[in-house]
Amino acid sequence: MPTFAHKGTSLWYDMHGEGQPLVLTGGFGLLHNQWDFVREMLAERYQVIDWNYRGAGHSDRAWPGGAYSQETWVDDLEIVLDELAIDNAVLWGTSTGSPISIRYAAKYPSRVRALITYPMFKADAGFRQAFNGFTAIGETFGYDALACLTSWIGCAEQNVFGARQGEIARWEAACFEQNFSLNTLAETMRIVATNDFTADVGRISCPILVLMGESGHLGYAEAGNRALAEEFLSLAQNAKLELVADGGGTYCMIEQPAATAQAVIDFIDAL
Question: Which structural domain, as residue segments, surrounds residue 227?
């Protein structure tokens, strides 16, 4: 697997296809595997770039407590693009990869041709309470056993994947086992619980596609996520919303891969 070292930290990436660079930034646990069901379709038209930020997946797992931040992950993306000599890319971020991509587009506007995102995180009292609850469960039962995620994953499969529930559950469990660690979850929750996209979105001038499934994969959160998407759209300079029919929120590329890939292709080809 291709990796490179930057100031003592090893960062992982992978590349497929040729053409317009399309950089994929996934959330903790799934990371690059979030696009397993659409990558081949996208790589037929674009240069698809997967990568893992430090502390997760195939990149260095060493995590000095409290030393990493969302800004660190944003700069990791800049380091990866520098290493690959990519001057201008389309970014697609979802889950915890969404705020990384949003912040990057605001911080390095000349390097972002367009942004595809699912703005599902904004720090407020309710959001922090939910994530503090996940953290408390992890501290009680052990992050390494994924006890704090079992009910979340089960809810996702029951509500979204239907007949594919068993297949997706096995695939997802394998992804978490490969990409996940105690430190990854604990520190990711600490970082994400302070995220607020409102300071960044108004600074982004490139075209933005807010892409999400029409149906929710997490019933308790999805109504709030749709509201966040609407707030994001109201603040953005040049953004539109695309809802994937019968797709599950941030899981639309898993639930409806062909329709999701086509939405991305239509957006990029129209740039």
Answer: 3-122+196-269
